[in-house]
Specification:
Blueprint lengths: L1 H27 E3 L4 E11 L5 E8 L3 E3 L6 E6 L3 E11 L5 E12 L5 H9 L5 H19 L3 H6 L1 H19 L1 E9 L2
Antiparallel strand pairs: 1-4, 2-3, 2-5, 6-7, 7-8
């Protein structure tokens, strides 16, 4: 009789321990969606170029386990963000003023090097991506318009858009962002 009680008690205790471990694992397992990254802060990682980071990241579809008290997990969306740029009375090369509206779609770069720039700048405040991209694109439009005439812009819109993308590329790269689409309405 004592053996049955001890065996039953040990079995119940073992089930409680296994159940607790499953619940703990369930609460600590994080899976990244297809359009997001997970950033595990606390324990660092080393990049292939030897740089040490204070975080490790898991990209779309990957999974990681958060160690309680050591790691903190934040999600960052890789979904495209619509950005509207409105420029009024920008001075062109020949002295004419140009007004135009542009619609762009920007997002966090999935490039293994550039994604770290976006994490460092926007992880805590992802809402700032929109404004940073809008300002960068506005500056690129102003630069290209200042070097062009109204007639050049009207004749070859694709070239104009390409020049704007090239002009904005360096600044966007430093922020870890890319332009997916860019379309203008105007002159």
């Amino acid at each position: 009789m004592n053996l049955i009680i001890v065996t039953l008690t040990a079995s119940i205790l073992l089930m409680v321990i296994i159940g607790g471990m499953v619940v703990l694992l369930w609460r600590c397992l994080y899976i990244a969606g297809p359009d997001e990254i997970l950033v595990f802060s606390g324990r660092g990682s080393v990049l292939p170029d030897g740089r040490q980071l204070g975080y490790r990241l898991i990209q779309g579809g990957g999974r990681g386990v958060r160690i309680p008290l050591l790691d903190q997990v934040q999600r960052m969306s890789l979904a495209p963000i619509p950005v509207e740029v409105a420029l009024l009375k920008v001075l062109a090369r020949n002295g004419e003023t140009i007004s135009l509206h542009a619609n762009a779609t920007v997002g966090v770069s999935r490039d293994p090097v550039r994604i770290h720039h976006a994490i460092e700048r926007f992880l805590s405040h992802p809402e700032n991506i929109h404004e940073a991209a809008r300002q960068c694109l506005s500056a690129a439009f102003r630069d290209v318009i200042a070097a062009s005439t109204l007639e050049e812009i009207r004749q070859d819109r694709e070239r104009f858009i390409s020049l704007v993308e090239v002009s904005a590329a360096d600044d966007l790269d430093r922020m870890g962002l890319i332009v997916d689409t860019l379309d203008i309405r105007g002159p």
